[in-house]
């Protein structure tokens, strides 16, 4: 069972295709991390955050304009009370887990992710409810048997306790398979101008040097479901192809790259092309691999001129620095350079203090 531990900073959970929509909630309790909220909740629809709560602000707040406009104060107050109650439970869970794992101090994380998915083409739905501790799976709810899966011995006690609460497990199944789906469809309707939109990609062929792999880069598309593939002489080509992950841009759109390792002689004598298919868009976006289509710094004479100027300036700077060092050594006997170390923890991620 794949570990689902998530980092709240830069969290991104996306549906596998445009037809599949998801509603997820992530609860995270931490201990031993200074200047960080001990409890955080995030609600996400199709990977987009819609709500947020932490133990510092102690208020459930909207993270999309359409959520703020469609849900009133009663909704946010009730969600706040739910999160406040969950905060106490999850903090207590860390203490229990620490006892079971014979832990004392240190940094520890208790996390839950639950929610549902709905395929708007087939109507198929799925639900999930998983708990993790310190980056490892701890418990997972099985919708078919209405029991809990415990992948670690320390979780067996909780599994047996939760398995015995059949009424609660029936309620959990009803929420994951029905109530959650109803809310998901409601949120999708609220934010349909954003969540249900389709944006075509911008496709480019990039290459660092004439001997580097050729990269087919698609960016600016929405939703996240995309396939970036290569063809050779009209046939699918998989040899010497490396696919990158789908990444989110700052504006909420996505990007993805596929790298083809091929010699110039090979692609000049055969027809290679990159094909980009975005779920929800009928059109295929195709770039034929030709010398005129490849964007590379090495083909730009202005870049070569700039590099020459930069190198010349660096040589001047180096000459000046060397001259100053030699002058100081001659004029100040016993000169000792300041001690530096890349293993100095105080220098990690912070500027030197002027004290």
From TrEMBL:
Q: Name one Pfam family in it.
A: MHC_I
RNA-binding as a keyword of this entry, yes or no, is no
Q: Which GO terms are recorded in the biological process aspect for this UniProt protein?
A: immune response
Q: Cite the record's Polar residues compositional bias ranges.
A: 338-355
Q: Does the record's keyword annotation contain Membrane?
A: yes
Q: Which GO terms describe its cellular component?
A: external side of plasma membrane; extracellular space
Question: Sorted alphabetically, which InterPro entries does this protein's record hold?
Answer: Ig-like_dom, Ig-like_dom_sf, Ig-like_fold, Ig_C1-set, MHC_class-I_related, MHC_I-like_Ag-recog, MHC_I-like_Ag-recog_sf, MHC_I/II-like_Ag-recog
**What keyword terms does UniProt attach to this protein?**
Glycoprotein, Membrane, Signal, Transmembrane, Transmembrane helix
Q: Where are the annotated segments for Disordered?
A: 335-355
Which parts pass through the membrane? 303-327
Residue ranges of the Ig-like domain?
201-277
Would you indicate the residue range of the signal peptide?
1-18
Q: Name the domain of life.
A: Eukaryota
Q: Which family does the similarity line name?
A: Belongs to the MHC class I family.
Task: Specify the protein name.
Answer: MHC class I
Q: Which organism is it from?
A: Salmo salar (Atlantic salmon)
């Amino acid at each position: 069972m794949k570990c689902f531990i998530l980092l709240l900073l830069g969290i991104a959970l996306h549906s596998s295709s445009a037809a599949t929509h998801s509603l997820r909630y992530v609860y995270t309790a931490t201990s031993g991390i200074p200047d960080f909220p001990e409890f955080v909740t995030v609600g996400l629809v199709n990977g987009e955050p819609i709500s947020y709560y932490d133990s510092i602000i102690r208020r459930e707040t909207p993270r999309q304009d359409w959520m703020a406009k469609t849900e009133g104060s009663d909704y946010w107050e009730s969600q706040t009370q739910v999160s406040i109650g969950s905060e106490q439970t999850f903090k207590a869970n860390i203490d229990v887990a620490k006892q079971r794992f014979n832990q004392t101090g240190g940094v520890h994380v208790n996390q839950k992710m639950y929610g549902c998915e709905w395929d708007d083409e087939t109507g198929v739905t799925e639900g999930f409810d998983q708990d993790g501790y310190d980056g490892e799976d701890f418990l997972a709810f099985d919708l078919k048997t209405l029991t809990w899966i415990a992948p670690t011995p320390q979780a067996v006690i909780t599994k047996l306790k939760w398995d015995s609460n059949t009424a609660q497990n029936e309620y959990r199944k009803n929420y994951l398979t029905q109530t959650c789906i109803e809310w998901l469809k409601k949120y999708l309707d609220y934010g349909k101008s954003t969540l249900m939109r389709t944006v075509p990609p911008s496709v480019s062929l990039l290459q660092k040097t004439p001997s580097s792999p050729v990269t087919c880069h698609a960016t600016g598309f929405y939703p996240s479901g995309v396939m970036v593939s290569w063809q050779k002489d009209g046939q699918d080509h998989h040899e010497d192809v490396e696919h990158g992950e789908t990444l989110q841009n700052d504006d909420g759109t996505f990007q993805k790259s596929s790298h083809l390792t091929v010699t110039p002689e090979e692609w000049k004598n055969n027809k290679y092309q990159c094909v980009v298919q975005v779920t929800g868009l009928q059109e295929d976006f195709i770039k034929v691999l030709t010398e005129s289509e490849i964007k590379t710094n090495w083909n730009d004479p202005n870049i070569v001129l700039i590099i020459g100027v930069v190198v010349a300036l660096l040589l001047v700077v180096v000459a000046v620095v060397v001259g100053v060092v030699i002058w100081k050594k001659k004029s100040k006997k016993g000169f000792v350079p300041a001690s530096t170390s890349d293993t100095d923890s105080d220098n990690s991620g912070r500027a030197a203090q002027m004290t």
